Amino acid sequence: MTMNETTIDELKAAPSDLEVPGTMRAWTLGDPNELKLETRKTPTPGRSEVLVRIDAVAICATDLDVISKGPPALINGGLPFNQDFTPGHEYMGTVVAAGPGVDEYTIGDRVAVEIHAGCGQCRRCRSGMYTSCTNYGRNYGEQDKGHRANGFTTQGGFAQYAVNHVNTLVPVPDQMSDAEAALAVTAGTSMYGFTEMGGLLAGESVVVIGPGPIGLLAVAVAKALGASPVALVGTRANRLAIGGKLGADVLIDGKSEDAVARVRALTGGIGADYVMDCAGTEQTINEAIHMCSRGGKICLAAFPHGLASIDLAHAVMNNIYLYGIRGEGKSAVRRAMALMAAGRFDATLIHTHTFNLADLPEALRYARERVDDAIKVVLRPQH
Ligand SMILES: [Zn+2]
Ligand SMILES: [Zn+2]
């Protein structure tokens, strides 16, 4: 484990060997919270697939849910436990083998990897909404629709290699570090939220609630797309400070200030054009509704774990639109990567810790308990 700056140099020194070994190391989920590092056969890519040597994989809060509870992972129609399943979904790496029909990528190409390939044949996939595939998890037995979501319905990234559909791959610029490229998936989720709310943000006001990884990069993406002003609501000073570095014009301490009143004052009394709630509590969803302007839009990028009592009447009477999002659809990772490649924001500001493959349990503990104020913890599977 090292801090940010050292880490990037170390990641650039990742092994350049492109030869594919017959076996690889992979973490396998047994019972809940039981992970075993095993040696398995290296998978072979099929039609329209490549084998990616995983050079960096970031840990996400959803990984913690999958490992302890199961959903949203769905393996063979059921819970992911004791099914030789490898979690991990926010990864990047190097193409080391290509299956039949692949001419889009060549051996040695560095790629970031979107999570969802979808089935490609349901109504949602056909309209480009492959993260809302209606055949989610149906990729086994007689009902095999070919749905793929790395680390949820197919093998994931806490391993040295993984097979990926070409549709999920996004080229990584030469100068970008492995760790930064792995964060393109997170930035893609933030980008997808804005896409679903309407997409064009220049000159419009945006409030992000919750400075976790998606919230912090939502600030960065909104700023890069020209939103003005961009406000961030949080409760921890150090997280708000990072939001400031990523482009937030206004930082609001949700503990000591009335966030709704601050946003109303900031927007001439009318409220924000867009609110992205990345905290997902009953309180923050209600704040989002009350700080949103009449006719404004709210993206629900996180959710309460139980039922929530929210002021729907206020939303309805004010023509406020609510958007739920799943994952990073409509090629959002590719679009987020374009902003990152152009240097429009520094995603590595949220990368705090790095571990080797064998240290996954400790890396997960850092992410879960926010040890040393961990935000994004990155694993290096080739080390
Ligand atoms: Zn994730
Ligand atoms: Zn589908």
UniProtKB/TrEMBL annotation:
It comes from the Bacteria. SUPFAM superfamilies: GroES-like, NAD(P)-binding Rossmann-fold domains. The keyword Cell membrane does not apply. PROSITE patterns: ADH_ZINC. Its cofactor is Zn(2+). Keywords: Metal-binding, Oxidoreductase, Zinc. The keyword Electron transport does not apply. Residues 30-379 form the Enoyl reductase (ER) domain. Coiled coil: none annotated. InterPro entries: ADH-like_C, ADH-like_N, ADH_Zn_CS, ER, GroES-like_sf, NAD(P)-bd_dom_sf, Zn_alcohol_dh. Belongs to the zinc-containing alcohol dehydrogenase family. This is Zinc-binding dehydrogenase.
